[in-house]
Design goal:
The protein is α/β, with parallel strands linked by helices and about 120 residues long. Helix 2 runs antiparallel to helix 5. The protein has five helices and six strands. The protein has a six-stranded mixed β-sheet with strand order 1-4-3-2-5-6. Helices cover about 40% and strands about 30% of the residues. It has a single domain, classed as SCP2 sterol-binding domain (Nonspecific Lipid-transfer Protein, Chain A), CATH 3.30.1050.
C-alpha cells in the first residue's frame, strides 16, 4: 500500500509526520491488513496545523487542503497526538480532555489499531 501526498508542496509538518508514520506501519503484513480495513478520510488537527489521511484500497493520501470533507476527526496538542501515534493509550488522553474526537469513531479505532501495528 502506498502512502502519498496530495499537493506535496503544500503539506505541513503534521502531514510529513503522519506520512512517515503510516509508511512505517504499512511496511508490515500486520499493518497492511489493518490499513486495508480503513475506508474514509480522517482529519488530524494539532494546534494550528491540520491534515487529512484518506484511506482507499490501494493507497493512503495525505493532504493539508482545508476544504476536504472527513468521516472522523481527532484534535489535540501535537504532543498528545504524537504519543497516541506512537502507542500511548488514547483513552487516557480522552479522559484528560487532551484530545477530542468527532465523527465516525469506529474509523478512529481502526486508525489507532494501525498505529499500534508491529513494525519491521
Amino acid at each position: 500500500m502506498d502512502v502519498v501526498f496530495h499537493e506535496p508542496d503544500r503539506v505541513n509538518l503534521l502531514g510529513y509526520f503522519l506520512r512517515d508514520l503510516l509508511k512505517t506501519k504499512v511496511s508490515t503484513v500486520d499493518g497492511r491488513e489493518k490499513a486495508a480495513k480503513i475506508k474514509g478520510t480522517i482529519r488530524f488537527v494539532a494546534g494550528e496545523m491540520a491534515c487529512t489521511a484518506t484511506f482507499s484500497t490501494r493507497q493512503i493520501e495525505i493532504s493539508s487542503k482545508q476544504s476536504l470533507a472527513f468521516n472522523a476527526q481527532i484534535r489535540g496538542e501535537l504532543s498528545g497526538l504524537v504519543d497516541i501515534a506512537l502507542g500511548a493509550s488514547y483513552v487516557q488522553y480522552l479522559l484528560l480532555n487532551r484530545v477530542k474526537i468527532k465523527g465516525d469513531i469506529s474509523i478512529l479505532f481502526r486508525v489507532v489499531s494501525l498505529f499500534k501495528a508491529e513494525t519491521a
